[in-house]
Amino acid sequence: MKRLLTALAASLIAASPAAAQPVAITGGKLVIGDGSAPIDNGVVIVDDGRVVAAGNVAIPQGAIIVDASGKWVTPGIVAGYSRIGLAEVDGGSGPTDVSAGNSPHSAAIDVAWGVNPSAEPIRVSRADGVTRALVAPGGTNSIFAGQGAVIDTGMDYDPVTRAGAFQYVYMGQGGAQLAGGSRSAAALQLIDALTQARDGRPSTDRPEEGALTDADIRALRPVVRGEVPMLVAVERASDIVNLIRIKRQFPRIDMVLLGAGEGWLVADQIAAAGISVIAEPTANRPASFDQLAATQSNIGRLRAAGVDVGVALISDFVNRNARNGRQLAGNLVALQKVPGHTGVSWDQAFAMISSVPADMMGLGGEIGSLRSGRRADVVIWNGDPLELMSVPERVWIDGVEQDLTTRASRLAERYREIGEGQFPEAYDR
Amino acid sequence: MRLTITALVGISLTACMGGGGDVASASDADADKEEAVAVDRDPFPSTYVPRFSEPTLIMNATVFDGVGGRIDGGAVYMVDGKIAMVGNAASMSLPAGINTIDGSGLYVTPGIIDVHSHLGNYPSPGVPAVSDGNEATSPNTAEVWTEHSVWPQDPGFSRALANGGITALQILPGSANLFGGRSVTLKNVPGRTVMDMKFPGAPYGLKMACGENPKRVYGNRGRSPATRMGNIAVTREQWIAAKAYDEQWDKYEEEGGKMPSRDLTKDTLRGVLDGDILVHNHCYRADEMAIMLKLADEFGYKVTSFQHAVEAYKIPDLLAEAGTCSAMWADWYGFKLESYDGIRENVAYVHNGGACAIVHSDDADGIQRLNQEAAKALAAGRRQGIEISDAEAWQWLSANPAKSLGIFDQTGSLESGKNADVVLWNGDPYSVYTRPQMVWVDGALMYDANDPNRRPVSDFELGQPGEGDVK
């Protein structure tokens, strides 16, 4: 209990003057997050919630000094795909806000309304250095799952960085099932909806079942104009090629592939089409017939072909384990030592969980790196942030220092010693 | 007319049990009584054969022996599929002129053993046609043996070998039922049949489950169990019936007479009561684990391990006293309410409390990185001031799993005479940047990162996109 209070007090003390005068985080191994190499003994200057400067820069007079000697200093992790905040617990524990399979709407559904910033998965993510996250809706009865949000994980009730940040679409086998049973039906639904959105008028032959509402079509207008990215879940190489064909019909669409397990087979075509990818580094099994060629070298090969790739946990635990994105990124670095594999450098791997997903959302000017002008999402780690044994020691979001306490950390404190007190554990707070 | 009872109640996997038709000789006194017939307890025996092994010496490596020891500048000598010598290279007299690997900068450990896998019974691709893990048709399906579901062509086996350094693994049936069926322990080598993979001499396990899964599956069908109290009631009823069956058969085996009817379900429970079959109990919550320990006391069996023991950290004293292992994830939590209190300190707390701690996967991806999961658990413990050395923590991955599967006399540590189930890592095995470089099973080199020919390609993958690629 004493420990907790001390931690809270420290954070309050550090947080309040931060708004009033600049803070300089000094002496650490500084990672900018844009793919550049770490800078030894780097400095980050934060003022009024923004990064003023970072690198080998001078410390302004009167700045509060935070000594990070022996530590690593990085931008906060940006989870490239998640559903944190939409469910406290999954199965068997009551309704969640993940999916809306019974709604008449689809593309128009805006996930931002469902994000609960005090949900444990958000607190746990924050405590592990995740300061921003793409939050995707879990799906409807259409290939259009709805509008995703970019959120922060801060300890206030204002989590949404950008609502309507992207439209989430299921293609491949999943989309085929949602559209009526075949890929052909899914492609037709996608093309028809985009056509209606582009032309600004509803289709005249809309069937009753599975029809898109006017709100859905309106939600797709900025997508077809390229103002809002379209995140498409897809794995099979042939499906990716088909999406490239569809993009030729709607050339302004800003398409981001999610998964793309067989992307490496058509990496050159993805690169030529200007499409980017968010992928899971460890996906290496034929988990479905869409992923027969899955290999951990997928991301390295895509990148070698010139595709922008972000890294995220995709296949499981997306409701809560955004914190493990950095472990996955580390695994990409490991491949450099395995003959035959194509990995990525440490610098690239870190960018894949920071600036790259931010850039894909058009938010690279705001979040994802410590370049000057960005929101001051900063983490001090006790070691290499991609390493398994490292943890954040201090976290700032928008320049405000965050509480890193979680239910789990409270439980760990409570059960560190058992049966010692005069009263049962329930009195130990 | 005493049948050879010792053979019947001993470890059941001795291949000499015969076909079940042998009749013991009658004693003179009971010549009119029918003689007891031995039932074959091992109708699907292991046909595993260790592959070719070349005498191999690894020199100058950092060695974790799997039972807490660390040797810097260590040597491991494998010959005839066994560990021949382990020690400090400088102080050993080592053979010359044999296959020698310079392990400078590398680490050697016992092979990792995953005590909770569904490779083969929930294989890749994850389609209904090969989804064979849960016989969810009755709360007690102890009659099913999961080895009859395991598809040896699951590509997941080779992934676990190449990326995870997994040399043995227990395949469990799923947790839909209070009694899910028998588990099987496999060597992680490709086989044409599941028998080709069965770990010789490994006892069977019985998968039991408590908590949300069985009550949900049967409650949704409007039948018992529909609550946690129903779980316990039905479990106790089944044990009462099994005890009666056990006594009936004990009597028959002692005295002969009319053979009782065979009941495959109760055969498995009888094996537990006789101590031949080990109970692996899917159970998350501390309060439920405590109840299951009492239930085991009531019927005279032992819970060998709790699987998914998310709240084991709340009762390390009870677990230590019962001699029950906890198989745990490093950081899974919150995916259902009974996992809500998961903490990353769990493994370290259980270990620190003197109980047997195991890191398990229950996951076709997680099984490829159990070393990484152990690292997270170890770090969490250290942050709470629990000092466990790297070498000591390796017990969570090899020795303790082997003990809980009843195969520690054969594998799970780098000690002379044990099976040469060995991993050479290309760096610190607790680093995210490290992968297996070579993996031996019974001294046979089954994976070599530098040799594309030592990378198994399952039948399923032949002729498919990506065949033979690095995975």
TrEMBL record, chain A:
GO MF term list: hydrolase activity, acting on carbon-nitrogen (but not peptide) bonds
The entry's keywords = Signal
Please report the stretch or stretches of sequence annotated as the Amidohydrolase domain: 270-399
Organism field: Sphingomicrobium sediminis
Residues spanning the signal sequence: 1-20
Record's protein name? Amidohydrolase family protein
Under Gene3D superfamilies, the record lists: Metal-dependent hydrolases, Urease, subunit C, domain 1
Pfam families, per this entry?
Amidohydro_3
- What InterPro entries would the database entry show? Amidohydro_3 (IPR013108), Metal-dep_hydrolase_composite (IPR011059), Metal_Hydrolase (IPR032466), Metallo-dep_Hydrolase (IPR051781)
PANTHER family given in the database record: ALPHA-D-RIBOSE 1-METHYLPHOSPHONATE 5-TRIPHOSPHATE DIPHOSPHATASE
TrEMBL record, chain B:
Q: Which GO terms describe its cellular component?
A: cytosol
Cofactor field: Zn(2+)
What residue intervals traverse the membrane?
none
What highest taxon heads this organism's lineage? Bacteria
Instruction: Report the residue ranges that make up the Amidohydrolase-related domain in this protein.
Output: 107-441
Which InterPro entries does the entry link to?
Amidohydro-rel, Metal-dep_hydrolase_composite, Metal_Hydrolase, Metallo-dep_Hydrolases_sf
**Molecular functions (GO terms):** hydrolase activity, acting on carbon-nitrogen (but not peptide) bonds, in cyclic amides
Its name, as the record gives it, is: Amidohydrolase family protein
- Identify the species of origin: Sphingomicrobium sediminis
